[in-house]
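hiii, so i know i said id send this last week but things got crazy w the move. better late than never?? heres the sequnce for the chain we talked about at the cafe, plus the structure i predicted for it. fair warning i was half asleep when i ran it
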Amino acid sequence: MSSLAAVFSGVSKSYPIYRSPGDRLKEIFTLHRKSFHEDFWALRDITFEIRRGSTFCIIGENGSGKSTLLQILAGILAPTTGTVEVSGRIAALLELGSGFNPEFSGRDNVYLNGSILGLSHAEMERKFPLIEQFAEIGEFIDQPVKTYSSGMAVRLAFAVAIHVDPEILLVDEALAVGDIYFRQRCMRKVHELRQRGVTILFVSHSMGDVKAIGDRSMWLDHGHIRAIGETDKVVAQYLAAMSQKDTAYLELKPGVQAAAAVASAPPEVVTTIPNIDHRHGNGRAEVIGIAVYDALQRPVHMLMPDMKVVVRISVKAHEAIASPNVGFMLRNHLGVDFAGTNTLREGVTLGAMQPGDLCTVDFHLDIPMLYPSHFSFSPAVADGPLTEYKMCDWIDNALTLQMGHGAGPVYGYLHLPCKVMVNSQLGKAAPTGSVIVG
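okay and structure toks below
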């Protein structure tokens, strides 16, 4: 058996772009002797190899050609030029519900997908209980797929893909729509498949996930390979380029920057909650908004090392709250509680709140040098002392931000502020010296 799972040799893919539907008809009527379209090249001269049993990640901006490449590998699209050699059974988790018939039930689609991959009905009978258990969509398994939410569709699609004994698994950003509980289960399953020697091609905008599982990575930019090699190095180059691109845009658009700063100056009370994965509490008070701003009061879209930010949380009381406590938890891409704080922890006592009262708290933070990943803020409001409080409202992962690349690599989770002093350097005749790191 070859040591290579896939080989791309000079692969390019173009799509005809017509200015109007009529131009397509004109081209057909001339029997394609005259062209009425322009060629859009989604991929240009792509050449690389994927070793069997490795995890190969593909990163890049939207529209860079990542999904097109995976669709070619899966056999959904044919390359315009070049060749692709694939060795092994492929299970693909591409677009949401890809390969599902929306009129069929989830159960019927499971068996349909199995037959497409060459598995017998008896084999799928044995695998179905495992698929149903992993998907956790309950009675919806016997309902038409068209009634599924996007999260339910991806649950079932992922459950099928990992249980049909793939030799090559393709995952194209589909997990981004899943809740954090399901994402954690999926990532654990991906690690399990890696240990079993399954070849994995993983497309994601989450640099934390890419660094966690990628043996090698490739950065695509407008259909071209910008970098390919060790994951840490490729991710660092990509994040540095994205940071430079954002900085260049602001420098070239001073008028836009100034207008945005004025327009985005936040009010005292924030009323936007970008995301709610889960919410719990007794409801006596609620979080009504969360936002993160930079030192100029502009909304933050990416965290950077040594950046000064303000995490603003607004809450509203529905009943009398004698000892309100407002805070947040910072989680990493795996859902692990990374860091957190609250007003009482910081020695700030908020006044009692009456029904209808609003309170806004600003947490001023200096962002340390964290590893490139996305981090989520989970805001909360409680009543009572730290030792015996009652939770009024907690929102899981209300706001998520990507951590950009700083100067130098990060070993582990964060780079500790460090000062190095060399008191003496040993030579052949030198007495024993000391090295102090502080």
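btw Residues 266-415 form a domain with the Coagulation Factor XIII; Chain A, domain 1 fold (CATH 2.70.50.60). thought thatd interest u
miss u guys!!
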